[in-house]
Amino acid sequence: MDPTLKANTIAALKTGISEFTPQMRTAAKYVVDQPSSFGLDSIRETARKAKVSTYTLVNMAKNLGFPSYEAFRQPFRHALVSGAGGQSDPGWVGKMRGQSEFGTVYADAAKNTLNIVTNSMERQQPEILEAIADMLVAADTVYLTAVRSSYAVAYYLHYVGRMALPSLQLIPRHHNSAIDDLNDAKPGDVLIAITVTPYSRETIEACAFAKKKGVSLLLITDSEVVSPDLAPEHTLVASVLSTHHFGCFSGMMAVVELLIASLMNRGGARARSRIKSYEDLRIAHNAYWVSQKKH
Q1: 31: which residues sit within 8 A by CB, 6+ positions away?
Q2: What are the φ and ψ backbone dihedral angles of 219, each rounded to 5 degrees?
Q3: Which of 220, 94, 235 is closest to 158 using CA atoms?
Q4: What radius of gyration do the chain's Cα atoms show?
Q5: Alpha helices, DSSP H only, in the chain?
Q6: CA distances from 201 to 148, 196, 226 (A)
Q7: pLDDT at residue number 10
Q8: How confident is the model at residue 217 (pLDDT cuts 50, 70, 90)?
Q9: Alpha-carbon gap, residue 11 to 9, rounded angstroms
Q10: CATH number of the domain at 126-284, out of 3.40.220.10, 3.40.50.10490, 3.40.50.300, 3.40.190.10?
Q11: How far is the first Cα of the chain from the last one, in angstroms, to the nearest whole number?
């Protein structure tokens, strides 16, 4: 089987998603986001997970030019079988799993974290990270926005990233909306937006507003298909699958670390000088706790 067929099918889904019906958009996003599960599961199980009807899946296959649903699924199943060799528990995880019921909870969460970090790192491409770093360094102003749980990731990226990228601004400021702070944005600026399913209305609206002003967009998210109406210059995708109700951000933090490393590399001596100036400032103003000697 042609190994490029899966990639071509995903590309066709991403290109055509804006023309799909709402249900087909939901199904297409599921296939793009979960290709392994799609290749493994039956049509009924895929419909259940994607929260669409089996008819929608069959109709999408025909819309893409496949003679049947199975023909549509086959490249994904073939890729899954070809790459099979699933990872077993590391020794320490297996040991914890056998200790108690809570040990099983611990082991499942630990293995999930290891898997999503690996998955998130593997899908990144050095040349894309290099292009993103060049885009950010060349920008007049780099805005960074996120809300709710994603805000923690944005705060960390801003706290460390501004050492190499002085133009980086975390918005919204002063309890404004992100759109308020983007009012003066212009072509030559960049917006970094961080959001995961379910996507924040405020963040998506800020992205759309920035694009209308000619601002370049970098999305850091959990899917290559966030909104059919957005056309980001770059998207960094991280897995946020978890064993509990909320997303696990370990993979996203790993991707952000890659971005920070890229910026530090681009910043060179100037970045190192800025880091030293911050460290000197903190030391001079007793920012760090020091244990007092007992007399």
Answers
A1: 10, 13, 38, 50, 76
A2: -100, 135
A3: 220
A4: 22
A5: 5-16, 22-33, 35-40, 43-50, 54-63, 69-82, 91-97, 101-122, 126-138, 149-161, 178-181, 201-212, 250-284
A6: 11, 11, 12
A7: 86
A8: very high
A9: 5
A10: 3.40.50.10490
A11: 77
> Measured between alpha carbons, how far is residue 253 from residues 2, 101, 256 in Å?
35, 29, 5
Give me the amino acid identity at 242. Answer: S
Output the pTM of the full model. 0.79
Cβ-contact 243, 109 below 8 angstroms: yes
Rounded Cα gap, residues 182 and 190, in angstroms: 10
Angle between the 250-284 and 101-122 helix axes, to the nearest 10 degrees? Answer: 80
Per CATH, is 5-82 categorized as 3.30.70.2740?
no
How many C-alpha atoms does 139 have within 13 Å on its Cβ side? 28
